[in-house]
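hiii so um. not sure if this is the right channel but i have a protein structure encoded as tokens and i wanna go backwards to a sequence. like what aa goes where. can anyone help
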């Protein structure tokens, strides 16, 4: 039986270009969801061909930005829990950051097909729920959060925060929800 060859790892410069494109796209698309791919390539200091080699469509780029941002929020969880006075403080900071990210995602929704949106939501659900569960367990341990909270329920309730524009109402909703989950 022939042995399947593993794909060759990406060259260091290609990895650097991809990371730079994602960084610039995140910044640019957060400000202008309709920004052109050409403007993103130019600001990233790469040619259009390089951008399209990594991200053949606008949707591919938007999905990659979203994946990277969700991963960044999930990866931040352990550090946030460790550095916060209580898990309830960590939960507020975590959800405020997630809400901002998801507001940006909603602004980019026109660039993503329904199938892409569904895939993005499905793919990110598990890691997000795991991160919430980690904070909830820490809150049970330090006594700052009610025991027995279901991460899916907490995510569902928190979803109202990113459905309103950032500002006073979003802050009030976040505080109201956190009051409900505190011990």
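sure thing!! here u go:
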């Amino acid at each position: 039986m022939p042995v399947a060859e593993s794909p060759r790892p990406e060259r260091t410069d290609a990895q650097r270009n991809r990371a730079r494109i994602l960084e610039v796209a995140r910044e640019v698309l957060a400000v202008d969801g309709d920004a052109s791919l050409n403007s993103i390539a130019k600001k990233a200091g790469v040619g259009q061909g390089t951008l399209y080699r990594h991200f053949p469509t606008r949707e591919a780029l938007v999905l990659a930005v979203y994946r990277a941002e969700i991963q960044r929020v999930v990866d931040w969880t352990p550090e946030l829990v460790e550095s916060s006075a209580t898990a309830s403080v960590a939960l507020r900071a975590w959800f405020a950051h997630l809400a901002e990210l998801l507001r940006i995602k909603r602004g980019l929704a026109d660039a993503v097909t329904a199938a892409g949106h569904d895939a993005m939501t499905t793919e990110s659900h598990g890691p997000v729920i795991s991160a919430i569960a980690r904070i909830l367990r820490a809150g049970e341990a330090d006594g700052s959060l009610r025991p027995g909270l279901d991460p899916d329920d907490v995510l569902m309730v928190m979803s109202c925060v990113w459905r309103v524009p950032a500002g006073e109402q979003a802050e009030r909703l976040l505080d109201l929800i956190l009051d409900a989950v505190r011990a």
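oh and The helical segments are 12-31, 37-44, 48-54, 58-83, 87-107, 114-142, 151-162, 168-181.
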